[in-house]
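In this section we walk through a basic example: taking a raw amino acid sequence and producing a predicted 3D structure, encoded as discrete structure tokens. The instruction is simple. Fold the sequence below.
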Amino acid sequence: MKTFGRAILICLILIILPAMTYVVMESSGASVSTPQEKVVYDLPYPGILPDNPLYFLKIIRDRITEFLTRDNLKKAQLYLLYSDKRVAMAMALAKKGKNQEALSTFSKAEKYFVKIPELLKENKSQGGQTPSSFVETLKLANAKHAELITELMKTLPEGSQDSLNQLLKLNQSVKVAVETLP
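The resulting token sequence is shown next.
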């Protein structure tokens, strides 16, 4: 009976966390880049990493939250959060030496980011407004992702370069799409 109660408690915590991380994401502003070419953009805390046995619970929670989010602007904000979290996860995995998992996780991050411009265009076609601050945040996040991809190019072994180049190309295509947003 104790394990059932613990399982319910863990599930409740995992359901409540997206709301708390959304509030944290909204309250933390993005900064401007410094002259050293470093992008000043804070990634959120990654939480449970893909190498954790409980990671599947996080995936379930994310998919439920994604399904229940119907507003295109809020879904775009959610995708940015998911993308940033996965980038942070990829960097943590790379530090642990789990290169393949890091590449896979970074790829998933960029795939979430790719969905954002289309959602914002759809939002505009439905008469919605996209705050200019959110577009600026997207530009900073995209620049930070590109910076971290190039950082991984320096640290990961030679066999990873093709995957990283593909990620960089995907990141550049997203940059072009974000630049065309109103």
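Looking at the output, two observations stand out. Residues 2-179 form one domain. The two ends are 55 Å apart (CA to CA). In the next section we compare this with other chains.
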